[in-house]
Amino acid sequence: MSCWLPGCPALSMCRGLATLPITCLERAKDLKTRLGILLHKPELGHRIGTSSKLQLGSRQRDSSREVLEWRESFDQLLKSKSGVTAFHTFLKTEFSEENLDFWLACEDFKKTRSKTKLASKANRIFEEFVQSEAPREVNIDHETREITRKNLSGATSACFNEAQAKTRTLMEKDSYPRFLKSASYQDMTKQATSRGISKRSHT
């Protein structure tokens, strides 16, 4: 729309645009076109949402399978970080979590490469878990306790092997079966199974 009246806004706008370089006007048109294309593609957002849902569903399936694998063997439980966490929570209810803590401390101890750190860690573990009247004394026999004490004089990554094996056997034979029968684990398996059934029904 043209206007020849002095001071007309339309006229001053046209003059302002006319003074702009052609490249600026072309860039503005290009930007407008691109924005229009994006605004008319709602499926882009849908794709992103679908992708995140698929990833979440995959994680849920993995965790469900993992929960069910814990009952296959004690080794399967110990291989799983979430399994160890669940088992530790259960042991707390029985006031026997020191057995698992000792086992985990031994696993960490075996990874120590420095000889000076090995000796200091060995003494710390022994004082906390193994010696008589230790703050978190594990349930091992006197003979195993004495063998471990002697091993400290020349600490190696294997100095807790016997005590760790005894503690592991105790957990596997005693605490682990009760964990599998516990209400908390039964609830977890029900949820895992229902997620599996739900997944199959949608395929």
Describe this structure in words.
The chain is mainly α. It has a domain at 58-190: Regulator of G-protein Signalling 4, domain 2 (Orthogonal Bundle). Helices cover 76% and strands 0% of the residues. It has ten helices and no strands. The protein has helices at residues 9-18, 22-39, 43-69, 74-79, 81-93, 97-110, 115-130, 142-151, 161-181, 183-201.
Quick recap of the structure?
The protein is an all-alpha fold. Helices cover 76% and strands 0% of the residues. It contains ten helices and no strands.
Q: First CA to last CA: what distance?
A: 60 Å
For the record, what CATH class of the domain at 58-190 applies? Mainly Alpha
Compressed to H and E, one letter per element, the order equals: HHHHHHHHHH
| Uncertain segments | 1-5, 9-14, 37-58
Query: How many DSSP helices?
Result: 10
CA-atom Rg in angstroms:
34 Å
CATH topology of the domain at 58-190: Regulator of G-protein Signalling 4, domain 2
Helix content: over 70%
The chain-level structural class is: mainly alpha
Number of strands: 0
Query: What value does the average pLDDT take?
Result: 79
Shape: elongated
The main pleated sheet reads as:
none
In terms of DSSP E residues, the strand content is under 5%
By CATH, the superfamily of the domain at 58-190 comes out as Regulator of G-protein Signalling 4, domain 2
Architecture of the domain at 58-190, CATH level 2?
Orthogonal Bundle
